[in-house]
Amino acid sequence: MPDEEELSSAELRASLPVDSDVEVDDVTPAAAPQPVHLRPAYVGIVALGGALGTGARELLSLAIPAIGAFPMAIFVINLTGAFALGIALEVLLRLGPDEGHRRRLRLFVGTGFLGGYTTYSTLAVGTAQAITGGQAAIGILYALLSVIAGAAAAFAGIAVAAAGHRRRLALRAARR
């Protein structure tokens, strides 16, 4: 097999795996694929979703009080965000390939809104504050519960969306 220097740039691009977030222009196949993160429209979609998600997180964090040293608001926000992300990604997966409007929706909802809504950096800060503030047991409990319950919430979101999909398929089959 020839080394990279012996391949033309088009041959080299064709031999590399293509990330699903890279759109290849079928009209000019020799042109380098443009990654989504370099396209201003996609960056704008993520930024808008992130701004809205961050606003929603701030509203909830002001509305839900802490329970002692346990930051209940961030705990609830991260769990509901993980659950919603599980639903969103399963629904989008069932709708078809990650392209066009489905890609834009994934970037807006998943990366943007839910990325701004959830806050695992605040989870880390809350854990550290509880531990350094003399509430080590609460800090450790908060961290462990957040990670374990967050994974369970994401799985539950996937399961709920998959069950909904199966129900819709069964209803369609019953109508025939």
From TrEMBL:
UniProt record similarity statement: Belongs to the fluoride channel Fluc/FEX (TC 1.A.43) family.
Activity regulation behaviour: Na(+) is not transported, but it plays an essential structural role and its presence is essential for fluoride channel function.
Underlying gene: fluC
Amino acids binding Na(+): 115, 118
Superkingdom of source: Bacteria
Organism whose genome encodes this protein: Lysinimonas soli
Sequence intervals crossing the membrane: 69-93, 105-128, 140-163
Function: Fluoride-specific ion channel. Important for reducing fluoride concentration in the cell, thus reducing its toxicity.
Keyword Transmembrane helix assigned: yes
Stated name of the protein: Fluoride-specific ion channel FluC
UniProt keyword terms in alphabetical order: Cell membrane, Ion channel, Ion transport, Membrane, Metal-binding, Sodium, Transmembrane, Transmembrane helix, Transport
Membrane topology term: Multi-pass membrane protein
Location in the cell: Cell membrane
Record's catalysed reaction(s): fluoride(in) = fluoride(out)
